[in-house]
Amino acid sequence: MVNWTKEQEAAIYTAGKDILVAAAAGSGKTAVLVERIIQKLTNQEQPVDIDELLVVTFSNAAAQEMSSRVGAALEKALSENPSSMHLKKQLSLLQKASISTLHSFCLDIVRQHAYMLDIDPGFRILDNIEADLLKQEVMDDLLEDWYGGEGVNQESFFAVVDRFSSDRNDMDVVELVDALYVFSIQNPWPDQWLDRLTDVYKVPQNWQETDLPWLDSVKDMIAEELDGLEQEINLAMETAKEPDGPYLYMDALEQDKQMVEQAKQLTAWDDLQTFFPLANLQGYPVKKCRNATKIKRKK
Ligand SMILES: Nc1ncnc2c1ncn2[C@@H]1O[C@H](COP(=O)(O)OP(=O)(O)OP(=O)(O)O)[C@@H](O)[C@H]1O
Ligand SMILES: [Mg+2]
């Protein structure tokens, strides 16, 4: 008899709502899930049959592990209660229970309902290489159409190519389109998700900072840059202070540091926008420090 922890018990017995269990590797997630299944099968008031449950995993190995652990738990329960017809039935149903990967479950559904989807019931899943080749082909055709086409959207297409490709080729655009595709199909409604992407770039008249959700990300990036700059200035100051250091740079470094500190105080977008075009890093004195020359020569 396992002594389940309080959290494990909650994960086993909580019913009537969705639950999400996240726990460290090897901490007993599968054990808890197996026990949750066993408890449902052996529930006195509402015993269920194993083929009424849907258990999906990500890998084949996990599905096999799940199935064999449920089998072992059923055997154990049966050895404690050898006359239970219900348990015997569960063991015999185990083979046709839906304990599989998410993919093979979906494949079964599609195959069973192929007639509704108007596809050949003898379809098969492309392997990764075939799928990549097909995707490549579609991408080539698509780009060829766009490069050769004419129309209102053509301008936009070339703007995208100009902005996102390198001088040499358009591989970056291909990768961008591919990344957008891959990301979009992780969403339940990929087309809507793609359509919505442009909404965030629509800047309303008399906009408020809160209207533009991406401003926060830009501000975070600026803050990160400023932190990095400050660290470098601090490092440079340490070096300048060393006995052999380029002490003449100290004034300029002090001023740069002040500038960075000032910038870090700013939070409103308007303030940031006014500040940066006017803010300059100091020029460092051309007149060589006596010691700096020495350092150079040492290298
Ligand atoms: N409360 C407990 N008391 C004693 N043993 C436990 C307890 N909870 C889990 N175990 C044991 O710990 C071991 C690891 O459990 P399990 O395989 O379920 O972990 P997991 O979280 O699924 O691991 P992984 O991250 O590798 O999938 C198993 O032998 C299981 O029986
Ligand atoms: Mg596990």
Automatic annotation (TrEMBL):
<dbReference type="InterPro" id="IPR027417">
    <property type="entry name" value="P-loop_NTPase"/>
</dbReference>
<protein>
    <submittedName>
        <fullName>UvrD-helicase domain-containing protein</fullName>
    </submittedName>
</protein>
<keyword id="KW-0547">Nucleotide-binding</keyword>
<dbReference type="InterPro" id="IPR000212">
    <property type="entry name" value="DNA_helicase_UvrD/REP"/>
</dbReference>
<feature type="domain" description="UvrD-like helicase ATP-binding">
    <location>
        <begin position="2"/>
        <end position="299"/>
    </location>
</feature>
<keyword id="KW-0378">Hydrolase</keyword>
<dbReference type="Pfam" id="PF00580">
    <property type="entry name" value="UvrD-helicase"/>
</dbReference>
<feature type="binding site">
    <location>
        <begin position="23"/>
        <end position="30"/>
    </location>
    <ligand>
        <name>ATP</name>
    </ligand>
</feature>
<dbReference type="InterPro" id="IPR014016">
    <property type="entry name" value="UvrD-like_ATP-bd"/>
</dbReference>
<keyword id="KW-0347">Helicase</keyword>
<keyword id="KW-0067">ATP-binding</keyword>
